[in-house]
Amino acid sequence: MSAVSASGRPVLKVRDLEVRFSVKREGLFAKPSQLYAVDGVSFEIAPGRTLGLVGESGSGKSTTALAAARLIPARRGHVEIDGVDVLSLEGEALRQQRRNVQFIFQDPYSSLNPRLRARDVVREPLDRLGIDSPAERASRVAELFRDVGLRPEQERLFPHQFSGGQRQRLGVARAIASRPKLVICDEPVSALDVAVQAQILNLLRRLQREHGLTYLFISHDLGVVQHMCNEVAVMYTGRIVEQASRVRLFTRPLHPYTRALLSSVPSADPTLDSRAGRILITGDPPSPIDPPQGCRFASRCPIAIERCRSETPPLVAHEPDHRVACHRAGEPIGADATRTH
Amino acid sequence: MSEPHSGPLLSLRDLTVEFATRDGTVPVLDRLSIDLDAGATLGLVGESGCGKSMTALAIMGLVPSPPGRFAGGSILFADEDLTRASDAHLRDIRGNSISMIFQEPMTSLNPVYTIGEQIAEVLRRHQDLGRRAAWERAVELLDSVSIPLPGRRAHDYPHQLSGGMRQRVMIAIALACRPRILIADEPTTALDVTVQAQIFDLLQALREETGTAIILITHDMGVVAEMTERVVVMYAGRMVEEGPVRDILSEPHHPYTRGLIASVPHLHAEVSDEPEDLLEIPGIVPSLAEFGQERCLFAPRCPRVSDRCRSEQPLLRGSGGWHKAACWHPEAGPA
User: Are residue A213 and residue A223 in the same domain, yes or no?
Assistant: First the structure.
């Protein structure tokens, strides 16, 4: 795969990751059901690159990231961060591993401690993980403020005194403070005003260029993903259904779900009629609680056949940089077959 | 589309809504003039706090008071000024003639009544239907918004439905009395993109069928391009640009509109290996205290700013046809 090729050992390597939650079923004595949140997910990210994880709400994007960072337990699978087997770590070794993976969250209003001054928000991970001497930490904080485009005099303010965009800059500074190997960006601009999103996206790209950061980038916004990611994995109810380089995924998508997803995005290009050629899929994703046999997209898929409902399609390589899990990958989707209603 | 010669269905004339704040009284809508023809579609775009939703609330007669009040201008609907209408009369108009759907369908539905009861209630209240007739019509309406098994689904409570289904129910309620205007405030922001496409298809089909005019409030230029014929760009309570969607997207005059379009990473059919950085609109929207000042409120963030912008308020000027912008230094040429 292209992610591994050039630069050697991947920063993040995930193999057959599974996360399940027990959920109560109706009825007093009913056995709890299993919610298949992440169901056999594998991918890797090469140093300095960005992998996008896209999919609709409930598809398992965030759960995958949380399990890879060991913030929630995986039921099965293997996760390596910079060569270290993360799922087997315990105690101090696990704690020290935390510095290598940091998160930028969606909502900078709720993810920053309102009682800490901005400098302490940024400094906290350094204190907690015992990184550098106290004097070095202070100068590191000053450096981080510069890096993310905040002014030195803002160090003593509280989070509520910042605008949404500035707050997210604070969240970025905090995330990169411990010089992590991997930064997980979970919908980092979804809560921001449109005009501010560009500031944060440009900042993330500049920091990646300057510091060689590696990103796992989670978003439901396909325009943002296309702009930010070298490689993209599409998730659907707990599984990766397609993964490819940016260029291939957006120009030659093979999975009917990816094709429907891309064709659903309204285009701002006035010369295009985005409704023409749209693959409209009906209904909602199946419940991840005791999901159906076979391909989970089959119930909404315009070109599903009998086999799709009984046999789970494996994620296989169609091209060196393009994997897809579909028995019908690349088959034509007729306009008549899809526009039902 | 309606005949251009007949008068507009809805006409905001220099509408000003003021809010009382700690810093004094500020116009959150500042001499806003918008026309909407019968059966037309209009997009309202801008950042949060620009007055998009306030415009909708003003039309609906739902401006919270205090702190808000009508301070000037008029809202003419079928030759009647809604800013002077009684509460009872506004209640009749809401739901019957002008309806609204909101961003988060879960919070707009009552969790303790079935969806069938909630739709039937609207019909009994506004259309004087009996219990049985209202229920039957409710099931028909669920069917018209493509809810499968509507007869059975009518007995469901809101929590038993997915987000997309709930928004369909909201649309069914909004359209129950065949309103002349439907105001949709970010109706798909909480929904996934494939469901968004379903909702937009539904709204377009219903509009063609019923001739309801649609005002769509959104921050997404793609949504505007897909759903509306005309667009109004708002900034700090004022209209800064107005025109046909195609003209505005291909040749925006106001630097703010240009920034709104260029700062968002839109999905492109042509994918490059290394995308350029996005254009940034620096800074943030002005605080309420700055609203209403006699200057261009976008000036501090504008790449084309001059002294004139800081001292004199630009008025809307047309550049031929229906396309106009409030800018001393409008841009020409493609975006």
Answer: yes
